């Protein structure tokens, strides 16, 4: 597993399990085996799903850990494949097969990876305009998905309480309903101290999942 993926993997799972008061040792060991396996990507996806099927108390994390599996593939597994593998018909077929998997967390992780590669500081404005290109006509699907974030960018300079207040008004059917609070909070404070994490948790509607996602983002960030 790539180093920053491992940090995000462990911090997120630990936060979720601690808040849910459940033992994650067996689940973690099974998932690590999936991530570390020398197998084709779709076999890893099947193994990931089997682990989650056997550990239903972690179900909320399934699609977010699919995203982690994907970013780990881009960071580690693809190095062992042909140079142009991501342009191959085989990868195109995998993209088609997994089009309904994962979440917008993958875009955030890809953006943070790009920031690390380019040695630039992540920012919400840069993420929206330069990475997602939400102002470009041909990227209106992204604009539609991220509209709640675009409309509330000012919150990046606000408090967790204010971010949570707006997050609670977002329809559960919106793709970003679960990610909104941790996403804005991450760009508000990328390296929170212990007191700030507690403040974040206090205002979260879904404390376990929100904390897991916030920990995942900040620990993946280099």
Description:
With 222 residues, the chain is an all-alpha fold. Helices cover 64% and strands 0% of the residues. The chain is built from twelve helices and no strands. The chain has helices at residues 3-20, 25-36, 41-54, 62-75, 89-97, 105-118, 124-131, 140-151, 160-167, 180-188, 194-203, 207-220. α4 (62-75) runs parallel beside α6 (105-118), α10 packs across α12 and α11 runs antiparallel to α12 (207-220). It is globular and about 45 Å long. The chain starts with a helix and ends with a helix. The model has no long low-confidence stretch (mean pLDDT 93).
In short:
By secondary structure, this protein is mainly α. It is 64% helix and 0% strand. The longest helix has 18 residues, at 3-20.
Structural class estimated from helices and strands: mainly alpha
Number of strands: 0
What's the shape? globular
User: What is the overall pLDDT average?
Assistant: 93
Number of helical segments with 4 or more residues? 12
Parts with pLDDT < 50 across at least 5 consecutive residues? none
Oligomer kind: single chain
The amount of beta strand, in percent, is under 5%
Distance between the termini: 15 Å
Elements, N to C (H/E): HHHHHHHHHHHH
- Sheet with the most strands? none
The gyration radius over C-alpha positions equals: 17 Å
The portion of residues assigned to helices is 55-70%
